[in-house]
Amino acid sequence: MERQTDVLVLGGAGVDSIVHVPELPLPYADSYPVPRIETRAGQTGDFVALGLHALGLRTHHLDLLGDDHEGELVRRLHRDRGLALTTFPLPGGTRRAVNLVGPDGRRLSLYDASRTEAADRLPVEAVRALAAASRHVHVSITQPCAEALPELGGSGVTVSTDLHDWDGSDSYHQPFADAADLVFVSTAKLADPERTMRRIVERGRARAVVATAGAEGSYLLVDGELTHTPAVAPPDPVVDSNGAGDAFAAGFLFGWLAGESPQRCARYGAITGAHACTVPATGVDPLGRAELLARAARLG
């Protein structure tokens, strides 16, 4: 059956307020003068979807959004980029976060966890229809997406997810890890990354697990073999690490869906992730297909 969409991205839509601070961690003080505080659309699902779209993949984003100013910012971002977006009401309001960005580009995200309630659901009919029209589904680790996982299991499409800074034991993340064919996770909180990666494979259906380690590159577990992919030097000064992991996932998925080797996919991810670090926190400028392939060719 011909699929109309390459990747359906579930969840992860929201808005961030960007605050540039003099250092991280930020010492206690009564107040700090900071440069202009800006609010822009874009959280993990938005960044993955926009990254895939920029790489030429037919992408559709599905999520719950509030009927508020922040929700309109998300809708406008998708309209301006020509990216398909289907939304349903989020009674608690659009998800938002405050990101503190240090001079070296490191980020501390303060995520507003009050926006989602236990009763929030992505409509089953919409998930079923859009998944049936897609080659692949990438799932954000938000509560409504957790409720949609059983529906994806019977859809016949491959599934990926990003566990972000999972500690390897928090039970909330486990259903996502178990349900995905391709799992991304950061090494930030993992005491033993290899052990966690192997446990993901043993417990679930994952055919590949990718652990990103920032400037140290990434680790790839496929067919029982663990390999390392070095980081790629950013082409311009690093100004913000926000969205780098999402960009890595988009680059990896681009190669994955094109039938490239897992090692080549990891190289693509390293390139797109490095590019994201050169984009100011207040902007959204994912790497395009032509430039990705050109940079990959130069690296060999």
Automatic annotation (TrEMBL):
Domain Carbohydrate kinase PfkB: 6-283
Upper lineage: Bacteria, Bacillati, Actinomycetota, Actinomycetes, Kitasatosporales
Name of the molecule in the record: Adenosine kinase
Keywords annotated in UniProt: Kinase, Transferase
InterPro entries (UniProt xref): Carboh/pur_kinase_PfkB_CS (IPR002173), PfkB_dom (IPR011611), Ribokinase-like (IPR029056)
UniProt keyword annotation of Chaperone present: no
Species, as recorded: Kitasatospora acidiphila
Keyword Calcium: no
MF terms in GO: kinase activity
